[in-house]
Amino acid sequence: MQSGMNHMTQQRMLQAKALSKEASRGLNLGKKISVPKDVMMEELNLLSNRGSRMFQERQKRAERFTVESAADTSNVRKREMELATQ
After folding, report:
1. Helix locations, 1-86, DSSP H
2. Is the separation of the CB atoms in 74 and 66 below 8 Å?
3. What pTM was computed for the model?
4. Which of the residues in the chain have pLDDT under 50?
5. What's the rounded Cα separation, in Å, for the pair 50 and 74?
């Protein structure tokens, strides 16, 4: 029984040494998977989860703000032109 445990202990020690050598060289975690932007946007356009609904609401607010801001800017320019011509 003692020799069986010694064999298991030796195997574990060899595995630990191999892992230690690999760690000292730097772990190879493999290639990073990149998700194409169009796939992410497609998932965000689904109404199936809360995150995509929140994203769509934010997009609507941003679009409304942009449109309102552009309209305000054009109104200010019109007023400036009217004041300049007087």
Report:
1. 2-25, 37-44, 50-85
2. no
3. 0.38
4. none
5. 36
